[in-house]
Amino acid sequence: MKTILIMRHGEAGPMQANDAARTLTSRGHTQAVEMGQWLAQHYPPQAVLVSPYIRAQQTARAVLQNNPVSFEQTCQDIVPSGNAAVAVDYLETLISMHDTLDTWLVVAHMPIVSYLVDQLVPGEMPIFATASVAVIQYDPATLKSDLVKLVNPTS
């Protein structure tokens, strides 16, 4: 079994013309650090895929400050308007190529984080608060998954 952690970025500044350039607020950074500490205690990631958008990159940096990983990649498929089916196919391919890595973190945005969960666990489409993490158990042999829980930051 593998663990897939789907995380929404921390709270970001207001909408602007260039959505990709939005940055985390101080609260968003605090949320990301908090969830990084929680992940380090419960599900330390070994690999991470992160959106190229600045707020997702900042979230990943905050999470990974206490969680060194063996594999890290920026993924153009996990932007807000990305195709979740394509992203999950890519993630499953990476998991099969790196079979010694058991815990994968994906840092992205609404609505694609909800669609990713639904692709992995059909019928499950949670609404993510900022910096929330969905914990999914994934069996690469059967390509079947179960949503274990959705964890929200307290800040």
Identify the notable features of this structure and list them briefly.
6 strands; 33% helix; globular; 23% strand; 6-stranded mixed sheet; Rossmann fold; alpha/beta
Layout of SSEs?
Layout: E1 2-8, H1 26-42, E2 47-50, H2 54-64, E3 71-74, H3 84-97, E4 103-108, H4 112-120, E5 133-139, E6 144-151
Parallel strand pairs: 1-4, 2-3, 2-4
Antiparallel strand pairs: 1-5, 5-6
Helix pairs in contact: 1-2, 3-4
The 3D shape can be described as globular
Number of domains: 1
Strand content: 15-25%
The spatial strand order of the largest sheet comes to: 3-2-4-1-5-6
What low-confidence regions span 5 or more consecutive residues with pLDDT below 50? none
The CATH homologous superfamily is named Phosphoglycerate mutase-like
The helix content is: 25-40%
Q: Please state the second-level CATH architecture.
A: 3-Layer(aba) Sandwich
CATH topology: Rossmann fold
Number of helices: 4
Q: How many β strands by DSSP?
A: 6
**Mean of pLDDT:** 96
**Helix/strand-derived class?**
alpha/beta
Any idea what the radius of gyration is? 14 Å
Largest sheet: 6 strands, mixed
CATH class: Alpha Beta
Spell out the helices and strands N to C. EHEHEHEHEE
Distance between the terminal alpha carbons, to the nearest Å? 31 Å
GO molecular function: protein histidine phosphatase activity
Organism: Pseudoalteromonas rubra
Pfam families: His_Phos_1
Protein name: Histidine phosphatase
Describe this structure as you would to a colleague.
GO terms for molecular function: protein histidine phosphatase activity. It comes from Pseudoalteromonas rubra. InterPro entries: His_Pase_superF_clade-1, His_PPase_superfam, Mito_Ser/Thr_phosphatase, SixA. Keywords: Hydrolase. This is Histidine phosphatase. This protein is of the alpha/beta class. It has one domain: Rossmann fold (3-Layer(aba) Sandwich). It has helices at residues 26-42, 54-64, 84-97, 112-120, and strands at 2-8, 47-50, 71-74, 103-108, 133-139, 144-151. The protein has a six-stranded mixed beta sheet with strand order 3-2-4-1-5-6. A hairpin with a 4-residue loop joins strand 5 (133-139) and strand 6 (144-151). Helix 1 (26-42) packs across helix 2 (54-64) and helix 3 packs across helix 4 (112-120). It is globular. The model has no long low-confidence stretch (mean pLDDT 96).
